[in-house]
Write a structure and sequence with these properties.
39% of the residues lie in helices and 25% in strands. The protein is an alpha+beta fold. Residues 1-62 form the Sushi domain.
């Protein structure tokens, strides 16, 4: 069989045989963040006219990263919560100020009478 090269972002080792002789078995794997596409193990077999590998060598493809919508939702929820808390705090302060002003008016009217 023809000599094999490791896939880009991957490696292989010869599990059995010389790696090019009939009966050889080669095992492939990918580095972290990549996944193997194709057969993990290839065997060198007798072909019609010459030895050949049991299948095409595999490839290593990047594992797609999931979109993390949870973080975005948490940020939006935090912003909305802050707006609600701020508006309630402002309403409370306005209410207290109005109450104090009303009490002053009542005292002024009592002292004038």
């Amino acid at each position: 069989c023809t000599g094999l090269q490791p896939p880009r972002y991957g490696l292989f080792y010869v599990e059995k045989g010389s790696g090019i002789s009939v009966g050889s078995m080669v095992v492939f794997w990918c580095k972290d963040g990549y996944q193997l596409v194709g057969s993990e193990t290839l065997a060198c077999l007798h072909g019609d006219s010459a030895p050949q590998w049991s299948s095409q060598p595999p490839l290593c493809e990047a594992i797609p990263k999931p979109v993390d919508k949870g973080f975005r939702v948490a940020v939006i929820a935090s912003i909305i919560s802050c707006i609600i808390i701020l508006s309630m705090s402002i309403s409370f302060v306005v209410c207290c100020v109005q109450e104090q002003l009303e009490k002053r008016r009542e005292r002024l009217q009592e002292t004038r009478n």
